[in-house]
Every structure is written in C-alpha cells, then in structure tokens.
Amino acid sequence: MAVELKNDRLLRALLRQPVDVTPIWIMRQAGRYLPEYRETRKQAGDFLTLCTTPELACKVTLQPVDRFPLDAAILFSDILTIPNAMGLGLYFVEGEGPRFERPIRTQSDVAALGVPDPETELRYVIDTVRLVRQELQGRVPLIGFAGSPWTLATYMVEGGGSKDFARTKALMFDQPALAHKLLEILADAVSAYLNAQVDAGAQTLMIFDTWGGVLTPRDYKAFSLHYMQRIVACLTREHDGRRVPIILFTRNSGASLEAIADSSCDAIGVDWTTDIGDARRRVGHAVGLQGNMDPAMLYASPDRIRDEAAVVLASYGAGSGHVFNLGHGITPDVDPDHLAVLVDAVHELSRQYH
After folding, report:
1. Is 28 a catalytic residue?
2. ∠ CA(65), CA(70), CA(76), 5° rounding?
C-alpha cells in the first residue's frame, strides 16, 4: 500500500488545483552547490559511478529535501542514461562535460540502435526511484525525468555538447528521414523509461528539452515538440489513484508556448527570457506554469533575492497553477543559504495569492 503523501502542493499546482502557498523546487537542486553533494561525489569517485549506484544516487536526491523545505525531490540522474544504455559509450571529461565514444553518424548507426529495457539496461535508475520513494516516506512527491528526443539526439550526433549543433542540423536538413527515424527510436525509449519510473514510484514526470530552443519555431514543432507530444500520448497518467502530471521544459521556447500548451502536457517549464505573467495570459487555463527566476539572481543579496521572488509571484498573480522554480538549473557556486532565503520567501510571500 502506498504511503500517504504529506505534502502534495506540487502535484496540485501542476494540475491547477487549489494550494495554500506556491510550491517550489529547483532544477539541479541535487548538485554541486551543496557541500554534502560534493562529499558524496568524492566518495563515489566519479560522476557516472554516482549516477549508477542507487544508494548514492538516492542519498544525493534526498540531500536538498533534508536541508530545505522544498516541495519536491527530483531523481538524481543524467539525461544521457538512455544513449549510454544504447551502447554509445558515455564518458565525462572534467571541465568539458559528456562525450560519446561511438557517436551516431550514418544510417547503419541509427539502424543498430535498439530501445533499452528500463528494468535491465537502466535498472540502476529504476532501483534508485524505488529506494528514494521508500526513504522519502511520503514527505514530498518524487519527480522522474528524461531528456527529450531532440536534445538526446544532439549529444548522440555531435558526440557531446555543442555550440552550433552543425552535425545535428546538417542531418536534420540534409537527411530528414534519417533524423526522424532516430527521433522515433528515442521517443519510444523515453516513453518506456518514463513509464518504468512511474511504475517504480515517480509521482510526476518532466521532459527536459535543453536544446529545442536552437531550432526555428517551425523546425521545433517538427523535430522536437512532435516527439515530446508522442511521448506524452504514451505515458501513464494515473498511478496509485492519482494523476501523474507531465511537465515539458524547452529552454528558449517563448515563441512556441501556445504550441507546447496544445501537446496534452499538464504544465510548461518557462525560462527567464519569458515573463511568467505574459506566459499565463498566452496559455490561459490550458496548463500550469513552472518557473522562472534567472538562476544568476541567487548570486545577489538575500534582500534582492526576496524582492525578485515577490516580482515573479506578482507577475503570475492570484490562483493556482504556478510552481516556482529557476528558469534553468542552479549554478554550482551559489551559496546554499541564498537558496534557503528563496524557498522561505516563496512560501511566505505567495500565501496572499491563494
């Protein structure tokens, strides 16, 4: 029998149901800005070992929730677990980020890809989800996640991160049928992976489309949003007697908010380049909104952080449907005490809007 959820603000806000205060969680909240994370990372020896050892991944998932009164835990993992399970040979270069030993370059490379079985090739992630749910004891909901097909494809084709995405865009423009084939396989893989996370205990899901914003609005719809929409249609939306809300986050997607709202997701993650009040006016009551303070604001003084929280909350205005977050991940050199100020400010200052 499922443990009763003591704080369900996040799930309620994502579904635009009444809440007492605006819930808050932070992208990359389990990470390098926390001294306890750095300690566990040292213990693991390297990042991949940390991701692939359920006990350690569980530990870092819980660290921010133990330290701050956040309204959710997000699974500690990496978006590149799927391509790694596809046999591309993921490794990390210190200071440079992820690399693949065997990038996708040809038709035969794409033909060789299979959809990984989450309970075997990605078992370490699914075991982490189970462990976190057990350890949370219903304190807050657990967010499961995956990278979007387009974002995963960029890393797989480029062989790592990129500034101009030349190889991926060349594939998309010159061999669109092959690009679509790759994205179809990835959509099937992400769907299976996310559904396995729900079966294991994830209570809401987020798809991170970090690089969808490098596309024109037209290409974004065809090569990114289309495949996220396909995933949303395949996802388990009800589990343990509750709705499982789906959040889609595309960085720099201000031009496409209405199209994203039509995807059947429950909420849209908004980065700091779009005013959240404008976003609300544009999407109406169709979806909830998550965001969207500039992550660099956490370098400012506590008073300035508090003022900015008030501005974002006022911009969204009265009523439910808002989950407070940064517009992207928290940066590694932020003072954890500054995040504590933000969390307290959001809970205190948002009460008037509910």
Report:
1. yes
2. 50
Among the options 12, 16, 41, 139, which is catalytic? 41
- Active-site residue 133, yes or no? no
Residue 328 phi, psi (nearest 5): -160, -170
> Among candidates 223, 227, 221, which has minimal Cα distance to 207?
227
Q: pLDDT tens digit string along 7-51?
A: 999 999 999 999 999 999 999 999 999 999 999 999 999 999 999
* Beta-strand pair 238-239/204-209: unpaired
- On whether the pTM is more than 0.85, the answer is yes
Is 275 one of the catalytic residues? no
Phi/psi zone of residue 283: left (φ > 0), alpha (ψ -120 to 50 degrees), beta? alpha
Q: Is 38 a catalytic residue?
A: no
Tell me whether residue 67 is one of the annotated catalytic residues: no
Where are the domains positioned within the chain? 9-353
Element (H, E) at 134: helix 123-136
Q: Is the CA virtual torsion 346, 347, 350, 353 positive or negative?
A: positive
Show the tokens assigned to 175: 């061999």
322: enclosing H helix or E strand: strand 322-326
Given the residues 33, 71, 139, 155, the one annotated as active site: 155
Would you give the distance in Å from CA 252 to the centre of its chain?
15
8, 71, 78, 127: which is the annotated catalytic residue? 78
Asked: is 9-353 a CATH 3.20.20.210 domain? The reply is yes
Quick one: 307 exposed, middle or buried, by C-beta within 10 A (0-12, 13-18, 19+)? Answer: middle
**Furthest C-alpha separation in the chain:** 58
What is the four-CA torsion angle of 203, 204, 210, 215, rounded to 10 degrees?
Answer: 150
Nearest to 320 by CA among 5, 4, 8, 6: 8
pLDDT digits (tens, 9 = 90+) for 156-210: 999 999 999 999 999 999 999 999 999 999 999 999 999 999 999 999 999 999 9
